[in-house]
Specification:
Elements lengths: L2 E7 L7 H9 L6 E5 L10 H6 L3 H11 L3 E5 L9 H10 L12 E7 L7 H13 L3 E2 L5 E3 L16 H20 L5
Parallel strand pairs: 1-2, 1-3, 3-4, 4-5, 4-6
Length: 186
């Protein structure tokens, strides 16, 4: 049985740096399949919708998370924080609390930015949110990509920096090893 990793990009831009980084992951291993889990059509989280009927886009989003063995979130940093669209998606994934689809799910966090800090502040916030949701975040590993605009081709389609590719592949291998060898704790 082929294992699967869901990819969530915290940017809505079609050719975002973070989407390019996430796409590059899909070419690094053959033993896993990758599935994009899109967040661009999710309505703003509103508890009233849980009562009146959760929209199909939310149901599909949650099913996509449920159907994969692990998730890698690849996100930019906006104003030293998490993008609003990603926070909204995580809020939907956290509800209802007793059956939240991300609870106990293995998750990795990667971020890329043209700046020098490599999304460190956003990743701290993402990890804090995921911990509150009782998500299993890959421990002791961070993948912070700074100066990303210098590490992709001029058409903004492909990661070209070999050192970044090696670091990214190592991160992915550690994430896969963690999924394959860590028992799920209740």
């Amino acid at each position: 049985m082929t294992r699967t990793i869901g990819l969530i990009c915290g940017s809505l831009r079609e050719n975002s740096y973070n989407r390019i980084i996430a796409q590059s992951l899909t070419d690094m291993v053959d033993s896993y399949q990758f599935h994009w889990i899109e967040i661009n059509n999710l309505p703003l989280f509103n508890e009233d919708m849980e009562i009146s009927g959760v929209p199909e886009t939310v149901t599909s989003f949650k099913s996509a998370i449920q159907d994969v063995d692990g998730i890698i979130i690849v996100s930019p940093e906006y104003n030293s924080g998490i993008p609003g669209v990603l926070k909204n998606a995580l809020d939907w994934a956290s509800r209802p609390r007793e059956s939240a689809v991300l609870t106990k799910k293995p998750v990795g966090v990667i971020g890329a930015t043209p700046g020098g800090m490599g999304t460190a502040f956003a990743q701290m916030q993402i990890r804090q949110i995921l911990e509150a949701m009782q998500v299993h975040v890959l421990p002791f590993q961070k993948m912070l990509i700074s100066q990303v605009h210098k590490k992709i081709d001029s058409d903004r389609k492909v990661l070209t920096d070999e050192q970044t590719k090696r670091y990214l592949e190592r991160y992915l291998q550690q994430f896969i090893h963690w999924i394959d060898h860590t028992p799920v704790l209740d």
